[in-house]
UniProtKB/TrEMBL annotation:
Name assigned to this protein: 3-isopropylmalate dehydratase large subunit
Record's function text: Catalyzes the isomerization between 2-isopropylmalate and 3-isopropylmalate, via the formation of 2-isopropylmaleate.
This protein's encoding gene: leuC
Origin superkingdom: Bacteria
Annotated EC: 4.2.1.33
Reaction catalyzed: (2R,3S)-3-isopropylmalate = (2S)-2-isopropylmalate
Domain Aconitase/3-isopropylmalate dehydratase large subunit alpha/beta/alpha span(s) in chain numbering: 8-456
Source organism of the structure: Arcicella gelida
Length: 465
């Protein structure tokens, strides 16, 4: 038999119909929806007088427009309130499970799916949201779709998709002190650029990923789309199975054994061929930070901002970007003043991220010049933060814990970084105005965020560990 990749195995198992010279008709196991990209899709169903085909394969959670304080109060912003209401009403109308504000299972869609065992290996998963790639950490094919496709999946549980090309990114060797999964992904994107994986679906392989926790794998797969990839995935293994076993919606008893036997077959065969392959050495990766306005503009924290010649997009893009950020060519990032620190988002809003943040904060104090937004990815993460004593470490240091949501990741809610201010952020995008009009974002890991939060400037976390 022809050796095949993990991606092919999962893809081929879901093709409902092959269309000659056209996209495959593809079955979707799980469909996540949130308040931003679903209202128009539901409106479409209504206009056409059709319903939702598999409400039990569809899951709704509110995250983008939710406030992160006083969630028990009515949502003040009328636009946000409307979106949230629409999600609730549509879910009720079509019998879709809905985790709205104050539901103990509420949180960011890409955090709650895996946490509740809805995301499983070998599945196809979509959501009207680009960071759906996160779920690929479980060996699922997961990707973002547009609102018209949301309508298509709601009504037919299928989607039309051309098969992407395949890329493998290998990273091997032990990771250095203070080097986290976020640094691995920012490093890969800095090497491949934001367009380097356009048209590809990426499999991450090598011992760095084999030794990584599920939280870390989710961070890496989450950021895949920032290098243009359709999605990213990692073969399921014992770490995956341990994470999933016993979660609310994972199969139980005999069904678990049967699922497990199938999941164990989900790996790339030894001689399978990829359209493109990259291999990196873990020893070359340091804690990373971005200095520009796309996620590919990242450097090792001890390095200087590169010259225009070495940057994707050429001098015009480079100058515009540095001008927006208020930085100069060849400057060091270390010591730059920080106004805001944001830890959270579907990239770094899981328990392991708060553990990392607390490991630096413990016994130190928040810097006076820093406003910190500490935002768990879900209520379940929030509960873990309290149970594990992280809450006490944070409050002793002068930090406040907020309630779950996308928060300052994209500022569709009240958490906006003011114009001109610098934010060290554990999220995934540093585009102009992403965290609020005129805001300046430095993407980094939870360790780098913590180091900035206690010193008030960009600081190498290795000096505090
Ligand atoms: C609002 C939503 C459609 C968007 C996305 O697709 O990613 C958001 O989650 C983001 O991160 O920019
Ligand atoms: S946390 Fe950020 S990246 Fe993730 S879904 Fe929300 S807005 Fe998008």
């Amino acid at each position: 038999m022809q050796p095949t990749t993990l991606f092919d195995k999962v893809w081929d198992a879901h093709v409902v119909r092959k269309i000659e010279d056209g996209p495959d008709v593809f079955f979707i196991d799980r469909h996540f929806i949130h308040e931003v990209t679903s209202p128009v899709a539901f409106l479409g169903l209504e206009t056409r007088g059709i319903g939702v085909m598999f409400s039990n394969r569809t899951f709704a959670t509110a995250d983008h427009n939710t406030p992160t304080i006083n969630q028990h109060l009515p949502v003040a912003d009328p636009l946000s309130a409307n979106q949230l209401k629409a999600l609730e009403t549509n879910s009720a109308k079509y019998g879709i499970s809905h985790w709205g504000l104050n539901n103990p299972k509420n949180g960011i869609v890409h955090v709650v799916g895996p946490e509740n065992g809805i995301t499983l290996p070998g599945m196809t998963i979509v959501c009207g949201d680009s960071h759906t790639s996160t779920h690929g950490a479980f060996g699922a094919i997961a990707f973002g779709i547009g609102t018209s496709e949301v309508e298509m999946v709601l009504s037919s549980q299928c989607i039309m998709q051309p098969k992407p090309k395949k890329m493998r990114v290998n990273v091997n060797g032990p990771l250095g002190k203070g080097v986290t999964p976020k640094d691995v992904t920012l490093y890969i994107i800095s090497k491949l650029t934001t367009a380097g994986a356009t048209g590809y679906f990426v499999e991450y392989a090598g011992d760095v990923f084999e030794n990584m926790s599920m939280e870390g794998r989710m961070t890496v797969c989450n950021m895949s789309i920032e290098m243009g990839a359709r999605g990213g995935m990692i073969a399921p293994d014992q770490t995956t199975f341990n994470y999933l076993e016993g979660r609310e919606q994972t199969p139980k008893g005999e069904a678990w054994d049967k699922a497990l036997a199938y999941w164990k077959t989900l790996k790339t065969d030894a001689d399978a061929v990829f359209d493109k392959e990259y291999t990196f050495d873990a020893a070359d990766i340091e804690p990373m930070i971005t200095y520009g306005t796309n996620p590919g503009m990242g450097i090792g924290i001890s390095k200087n901002i590169p010259t225009a010649e070495s940057v994707e997009g050429g001098k015009a893009t480079y100058d515009k970007s540095l001008n927006y950020m208020g930085f100069g060519e060849q400057e060091s990032m270390l010591g730059k003043k920080v106004d805001y620190v944001f830890i959270g988002s579907c990239t770094n809003g899981r328990i392991e991220d708060f553990r990392a943040f607390a490991s630096i904060v413990k016994g130190r104090k928040k810097a006076d010049n820093v406003t910190a937004w500490i935002v768990p990815g879900s209520h379940i993460v929030e509960a873990q933060i309290r149970e594990e004593g992280i809450y006490d470490i944070l409050t002793d240091a002068g930090f406040q814990l907020r309630q779950p949501g996308c928060s300052a990741c994209l500022a569709m809610n009240d958490d906006k970084i003011p114009a001109g201010k610098y934010a060290v952020s554990t999220s995934n995008r540093n585009f102009e105005g992403r965290q609020g009009p005129g805001s300046r974002t430095l993407l980094a890991s939870p360790l780098v965020a913590a180091a900035a939060a206690v010193t008030g400037v960009v600081t190498d976390p290795r000096t505090l560990l």
